[in-house]
Specification:
21 helices, binds protoporphyrin IX containing FE, 9% strand, globular, alpha+beta, single chain
């Protein structure tokens, strides 16, 4: 009996000693992380030093834009977002991160691909390997080359116009129609044929697949193992999200393989034009499928907020109409071309201001601090970030920095008409900066110019009571969208006025 007590006593004391050691170790780690870690000089909530959970939570909720705003208001230009993730909202900080070729993309980009195998351009980590695809792609998508796409844009715009004019009461959900337009344009530009959704006025299988792919991309970028969770899940919604990427690839493959060269032989982004850039068909299919995501909601969101902001301001709308009326439509059938309107100053200022206040990619573009570390500077402070830490600009906040823009949250296109400071130029980054900026920028501008000019010359836009600042407040999914999921605007044909 005594022996038994002795053994138990020893076991208990061993267990107690082990527990005490473990508790001391945990305490040491917590104290070390909170007060002695190499990032302790970076301002931010204490919780961010030990967990990524707050960041994950706000990504899932879609309110990261507002959360980043609050963090910067409280902690300044440079903030600790996660234990190994630092964000800055200074233009100078953005320049430091994105204009240097030595910063590679963060592991985040591994999660936004199409699964195993080849990566698409957005995912390629370093400037050099991305450059091999980017350089020829930029030539293919150069402004002069894109003239050939203008008739394609107009063809879809005709269907769009017919569609919105048929909406009862001419109260149009612009979000729905602009998304349909952008999806049809990019699918025809990439696959050689659209999916006819614009003609039906409804989201179809393709759009649902793209929406699911974007949701899946967002969730798998923040929830570890999300792919596996979906794959093993009994819930049909999760399994549908997971299969969306494969579905998109299948549509991409079909588009490329059934591309009709006899109809559009010299098409800008035709498979035979793009194929030499890629080592095999799989890479080409992945790239073109990624265009479907990168090149759709980005353009439609810009056009949406442009129309909304203009519709809110009758005086500006009339000024813009007067300016657009000075442009002669030189395209076939007297259609507006990019060249007709791209130099109009107020028109350009309105688009720039829309992209400043409502950036389609509003959140973070994470990179890894290089081996020597880097200093994130702003006029107020500069903080050293050691090697391997993820660094990023908080884009929406950088573009509304109160030190750079007067009345930063006001839509004031005139700020771009005179006295544009270097700080303003530096802080305007809707397409990102440097060697990994948007490769589809020129295509996006063509689409925005042509659609916006055609619509604003043709219609007077009004905001009905149901469309409010709250319903239009920005949420961040893969890209920016209005929180209500719609944007009803009233359209009145100009001639009828
Ligand atoms: C208003 C419209 C657009 C905006 C605001 C926009 C914005 C951006 C931004 C901010 C990036 C950098 C992403 C990052 O570093 O994580 C990017 C990259 C990219 N964009 Fe766009 N984009 C637009 C339209 C388009 C279009 C129409 C395409 C058509 C194909 C496109 C294709 C791409 C691609 C392929 C990349 C990856 C480039 C690389 O990693 O080197 N984008 N875009």
């Amino acid at each position: 009996m005594l022996d038994l007590i002795d053994v138990l006593f020893h076991q208990v004391s061993y267990a107690a000693i082990s527990a005490a050691f473990f508790a001391a170790f945990v305490l040491y780690q917590v104290v070390q992380t909170l007060f002695f870690a190499d990032l302790r000089h970076i301002p931010g909530p204490l919780l961010h030093r030990v967990t990524s959970f707050p960041h994950i939570w706000h990504v899932i909720r879609g309110d990261r834009i507002q959360w980043l705003d609050r963090l910067h208001n409280r902690y300044g230009d440079v903030v600790l977002l996660e234990p190994r993730f630092v964000v800055t909202c200074s233009g100078l900080g953005a320049k430091t991160i994105y204009s240097s070729n030595s910063l590679i993309k963060a592991p985040f980009y591994d999660t936004v691909g199409f699964g195993a195998g080849h990566k698409h351009l957005l995912q390629l980590k370093d400037v050099k390997s991305a450059g091999r695809i980017r350089k020829p792609l930029l030539k293919i998508m150069a402004k002069d080359n894109l003239n050939k796409l203008e008739s394609l844009i107009h063809r879809h715009l005709d269907i769009f116009i017919k569609g919105i004019e048929g909406v009862p009461g001419q109260k149009v959900d612009m979000l729905l129609w602009l998304r349909l337009l952008a999806f049809d344009i990019i699918s025809e530009a990439s696959f050689g044929h659209d999916f006819g959704q614009l003609a039906t006025g409804q989201f179809g299988t393709l759009t649902q697949t793209i929406f699911d792919s974007m949701r899946f991309g967002v969730l798998s970028s923040v929830i570890p193992g999300f792919r596996t969770i979906c794959l093993l899940s009994p819930f049909p919604t999760l399994r549908r999200l997971h299969s969306s990427l494969q579905k998109l690839l299948m549509l991409g493959a079909k588009g490329i393989r059934t591309y009709d060269l006899s109809v559009t032989p010299d098409f800008v982004m035709a498979p035979h034009v793009l194929a030499p850039l890629f080592s095999d068909e799989e890479s080409l299919i992945k790239e073109v499928s990624a265009f479907m995501i990168a090149g759709s909601d980005t353009s439609s969101t810009t056009l949406l907020y442009l129309f909304y902001e203009i519709a809110l301001r009758p005086h500006l709308q009339q000024q813009l109409f007067d300016e657009l009326s000075t442009a002669t439509a030189t395209g076939s059938d007297e259609r507006i071309t990019r060249e007709d309107v791209e130099k109009l100053s107020l028109f350009n200022a309105c688009i720039k201001e829309t992209l400043r206040l409502h950036p389609p990619v509003p959140g973070v573009l994470p990179r890894l601090a290089p081996e020597r570390g880097l200093t994130l500077g702003s006029p107020k402070s500069s903080l050293f970030v050691p090697s391997g830490v993820v660094v990023s600009s908080s884009v929406a906040r950088t573009q509304t920095h109160a030190d750079v823009f007067d009345e930063p949250y006001e839509f004031r296109p005139e700020r771009w008409l005179s006295d544009v400071t270097e700080d303003m130029k530096q802080a305007w980054m809707p397409f990102s900066l440097g060697q990994r900026n948007c490769v589809g920028m020129s295509l996006a501008w063509s689409e925005i110019y042509i659609v916006a000019a055609t619509v604003l010359r043709r219609y007077w836009l009004d905001v009905p009571p149901e469309t409010t600042p709250e319903s239009m407040s920005m949420v961040e999914g893969f890209f920016t969208l209005p929180s209500s999921g719609k944007c009803v605007l009233e359209i009145a044909p100009r001639k009828a006025q």
